[in-house]
Design brief:
8-stranded mixed beta sheet; 18 strands; 508 residues; 6-stranded parallel beta sheet; Rossmann fold; Glycosyl transferase family 1 domain-containing protein; globular; alpha/beta; single chain; 36% helix
Length: 508
């Protein structure tokens, strides 16, 4: 068996100090724990009930007899089939969200009025953002965008309000929404009903002041309640940011049943009829249309790829829109130097280890090539996935540490970053971070703006499919992407202020 893999997959065993082989033989197999990545205890016992009835350790049977008899160590189904078997209906997810967030009591409206009134003239120029969660307490690409926008406005003397649902929710809502968390200049003030927030803002904000807003995400919000709040508080000019495709469908990544890219077929199509998100597609499209058309919002998108897809699928071809990249490569810097390569190609996965970002494809690479002396594998992100055959380097990108991922990539001497997103990325920060670190980007044809960036000049390759990816490693063709072969250099990254960028904020 693979003791390192067993420890990584079973942190409780690792923490206990127990010998992995002894634990598996005594307890692990009875608990359904797998001894190696390529063998499934549950699959083997389900495939061969004679072994289950005999009470035999399935892995030992396979080693001693089953392998020679042609018995399979695990079900021969692909990742898509495995994922399909675990699919949950959307209503189950919504019911779980409702149970997770019991009804909370809102704060008294007057408390918000007092907090706002105390600022007086400082609120004569206010910019309000709306997103799906507390952007100042959570980590992610969209949250960083909101933080950067607020920081850029603060530098201009503009006060920043942020509204988010206290109860995170996987879709738009139709019930008025839950309580809204309110933050002022990054400081949490409390949570109130949407109607109370609108009334308090109308009362506290000085008349004649400038008021603008940016919608970054409406997940967890009722669009009708958001519209009423904005109009009550006197916010008439705003923009809509296209960070994902929630404005087209409840499946924000445009993946049918969370499995494969759907390409945003026409609403009401047969493809939507069989997708778990199909019944809520109209809710999302109509809810966003209500706000975009009702306020005459300009749509801001981080890439031409995202804008083209959105124009085609939204039915809003005449809405004003423009492309504003979230970041760009800057000048070459010699402040960072990668370690010597030692003749090994270092291959990395960046960010959250989730299926739609290509994590399972990276796992397949590790399983097939971790024993190959030509390659070394590493995961970089906020938390390690505990997977054998690869290293882990912590990289926590934040408003204070915007180059954390780039610096970690350089420090690890990464040659190649696998950014094999299965969905159309609207921007693809990881690809830009990899390029800034001097790493080459390997991606597939469905990755949206990641593929577009590589085709436009970022170092790397857009491969036809997974077979081409594995062939590149098998033949060694991927070795041509090493840092030394390309003469890789480290570069700075320049970040956008988003709505606070020059010429973007709406209104006089």
């Amino acid at each position: 068996m693979d003791p390192d893999w067993y420890r990584a997959m079973n942190p409780d065993v690792a923490a206990s100090g127990a010998d992995p082989a002894d634990h598996f033989l005594r307890h692990g197999w009875r608990e359904g724990r797998d001894p190696i990545a390529g063998f499934s205890v549950r699959d083997y016992l389900e495939l061969y009930p004679d072994i289950a009835e005999a009470g035999i350790n399935p892995f030992l049977h396979w080693l001693k007899a089953g392998k020679a008899e042609g018995r399979l160590p695990r079900r021969e189904i692909g990742r898509t089939a495995r994922a399909a078997a675990l699919l949950e209906p959307l209503q189950v997810r919504l019911d779980r969200a409702a149970r997770r967030w019991p009804q909370a009591r809102p704060a008294v409206r007057e408390a918000l009025c007092r907090r706002l009134a105390a600022l007086g003239p400082a609120l004569s120029d206010v910019h309000l953002t709306v997103s799906h969660d507390d952007a100042f307490r959570n980590v992610g690409g969209l949250q960083l965008c909101v933080q950067r926008e607020h920081a850029a406005f603060a530098a201009q003397g503009v006060s920043g309000l942020h509204l988010h649902p206290v109860d995170t929710w996987p879709t738009l809502r139709e019930d008025g929404g839950g309580l809204l968390g309110v933050a002022l200049n990054g400081e949490a003030l409390g949570a109130w009903a949407a109607a109370d927030v609108g009334a308090a803002l109308a009362e506290a904000l000085p008349s004649g002041g400038r008021r603008t807003f940016a919608l970054h995400s409406l997940l967890g919000h009722d669009p009708a309640a958001v519209e009423t709040l904005l109009r009550t508080a006197g916010f008439a000019r705003g923009v809509f940011w296209l960070h994902d495709f929630a404005s087209l469908c409840a499946g924000v990544h445009l993946m049918r049943d969370d499995l494969v890219d759907c390409g945003a077929p026409p609403a009401g199509s047969a493809a939507c009829g069989v997708c778990l998100y199909g019944q809520r597609r109209a809710l999302h499209a109509e809810g966003h249309r209500r706000l975009i058309e009702g306020f005459g919002l300009e749509v801001l998108t981080p890439s031409q790829v995202a804008l083209d897809l959105w124009r085609r699928a939204s039915g809003l071809a005449e809405v004003p829109a423009r492309v504003l990249p979230l970041a760009a490569l800057g000048e070459v810097t010699d402040a960072l130097e990668p370690p010597a390569s030692e003749g090994v190609l270092r291959v990395a996965f960046l960010g959250a280890p989730v299926p739609h970002k290509g994590w399972e494809i990276f796992q397949d690479l590790v399983r097939r090539f971790s024993g190959d002396p030509r390659y070394a594998f590493v995961q970089l992100g906020a938390q390690g996935a505990g997977y054998a055959g690869m290293g882990f380097v912590e990289a926590r990108v934040s408003a204070d540490q915007p180059h954390a991922m780039r610096n970690a990539l350089v420090g690890a001497g990464v040659d190649v970053a696998l950014t094999w997103s299965l969905c159309a990325e609207t921007f693809g920060f990881t690809a830009l971070e990899a390029a800034a670190a001097g790493a080459a980007v390997l991606t597939g044809p469905d990755s949206g703006n990641i593929a577009a960036q590589v085709k436009a000049g970022l170092p790397g390759r857009v491969l036809e499919d997974e077979s081409a990816l594995f062939a590149a490693f098998e033949t060694g063709e991927v070795l041509s992407l090493s840092r030394s072969a390309r003469g890789a250099r480290v570069r700075d990254m320049v970040f956008s202020g988003l709505t606070a960028a020059p010429g973007v904020r709406p209104g006089p």
